[in-house]
């Protein structure tokens, strides 16, 4: 008699270790989301009340880069380093290390990137004067913002949905990293790239030999960042690369008392810096869009703006939800018994809150057209606010329905 294959449970109960990891990330990213919101609001107020002052600060030259580029190329490298550590842990020992568990968030994330890009391209192909180069802007999800909204408006939803959103955003980050590395690298300098490869190889060797000490890794990381910046590849890629090369597994012969792997230790060290300092400062120096009446009138008829907003609000929601639903339809996966598809759709709407990476890609996509880059950033802010508002209403209704069912 042939044994029946076990069905995969979508968004089932997480293990105790995974639950603790998710809880730690939720606390730090939620606090970071509040700081990002404050920084973005401050940037908007500053840019609209004192535009000249804001621009002077942005273009203040500090060494080889101005303040805006230090934030985008320097501070965001910390954010991407933490993203690299997350990816290494999740794909090595975390929830994505098991193919059955990884299938749903990967498919949902891929659909949640493909559909927004397709919506953007459709709008800009059909409409006269469309700008195709902004196709990647609505692909990203800002996990700090999304988790902050989820924690405030829907604290009663199951932890498995929060874990799904977190895992989805991790895979989403990987997609954004690949897009930045491939689509927005104009010209590569091979000799500098060899230097990057040498730094990465030395980092991996130090990890393999279990060498500890910040005095080895910090100078090596800074050198790798500088070589990456000089090579023509966006400097933030160095953070991801080094994060992925960091050791995530314990070894049987590790010294007793070693407080976790380097991935665990460094993520615990650097995540508060990323969520509490690096990303809020980037928001302060990137989200300051002057919303004059002329700009608002231009936005209404600009295909790129319409494509970004539609991609974030419509493309993300239906892409993520459709990916999860298709996985359940065409595999042996089924929804956990304590969840409803309406709750999954509410979380999918929340994935349309794009901010940090979307703002970065706006600069990269329209770098030679500052006016268009400003319009794209304004579209990111509007689309993210719309997605956040719709998600908040939907999540509130789902939470109220769950409370009534439990009473």
UniProtKB/TrEMBL annotation:
Keyword Flavoprotein: no
Top-level taxon of the source organism: Bacteria
Subcellular location as annotated: Cell inner membrane; Cell membrane
Membrane topology: Multi-pass membrane protein
One CC-aspect GO term: plasma membrane
InterPro entries noted in UniProt: Na/H_antiporter_dom_sf, NhaA
Protein name: Na(+)/H(+) antiporter NhaA
Taxonomic source organism: Microlunatus parietis
């Amino acid at each position: 008699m042939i044994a029946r294959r076990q069905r995969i449970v979508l968004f089932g109960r997480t293990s105790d270790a995974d639950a603790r990891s998710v809880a730690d990330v939720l606390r730090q990213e939620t606090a970071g989301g509040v700081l990002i919101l404050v920084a973005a609001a401050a940037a908007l107020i500053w840019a609209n009340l004192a535009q000249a002052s804001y621009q002077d600060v942005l273009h203040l030259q500090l060494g080889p880069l101005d303040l805006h580029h230090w934030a985008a190329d320097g501070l965001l490298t910390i954010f991407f380093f933490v993203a690299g550590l997350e990816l290494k842990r999740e794909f090595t020992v975390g929830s994505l290390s098991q193919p059955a568990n990884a299938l749903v968030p990967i498919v949902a994330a891929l659909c949640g990137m493909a559909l927004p890009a397709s919506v953007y391209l459709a709008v800009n192909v059909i409409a006269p004067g469309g700008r195709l180069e902004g196709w990647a802007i609505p692909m990203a999800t800002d996990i700090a913002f999304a988790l902050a909204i989820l924690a405030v408006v829907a604290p009663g939803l199951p932890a498995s949905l929060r874990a799904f959103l977190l895992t989805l955003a991790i895979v989403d980050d990987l997609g954004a990293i690949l897009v930045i590395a491939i689509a927005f690298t104009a010209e590569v300098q091979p000799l500098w790239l060899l230097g990057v490869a040498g730094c990465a190889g030395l980092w991996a060797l130090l990890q393999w030999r279990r060498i500890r000490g910040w005095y080895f890794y910090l100078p090596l990381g800074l050198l790798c960042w500088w070589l990456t910046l000089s090579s023509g590849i966006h400097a933030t890629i160095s953070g991801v690369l080094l994060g992925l090369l960091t050791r995530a597994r314990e070894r049987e012969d590790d010294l007793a008392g070693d407080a976790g792997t380097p991935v665990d230790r460094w993520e615990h060290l650097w995540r508060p810096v990323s969520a509490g300092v690096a990303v809020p400062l980037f928001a302060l120096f990137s989200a300051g869009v002057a919303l004059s009446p002329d700009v608002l009138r231009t936005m209404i008829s600009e295909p790129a703006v319409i494509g970004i907003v539609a991609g974030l609000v419509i493309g993300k929601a239906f892409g993520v939800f459709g990916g999860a639903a298709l996985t359940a339809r065409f595999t042996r996966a089924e929804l956990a018994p304590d969840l409803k598809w309406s709750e999954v759709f509410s979380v999918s709407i929340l994935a349309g809150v794009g901010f940090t990476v979307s703002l970065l890609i706006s600069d990269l996509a329209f770098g030679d057209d500052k006016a268009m880059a400003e319009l794209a950033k304004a579209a990111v802010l509007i689309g993210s606010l719309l997605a956040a508002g719709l998600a908040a209403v939907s999540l509130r209704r789902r939470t109220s329905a769950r409370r009534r069912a439990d009473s």
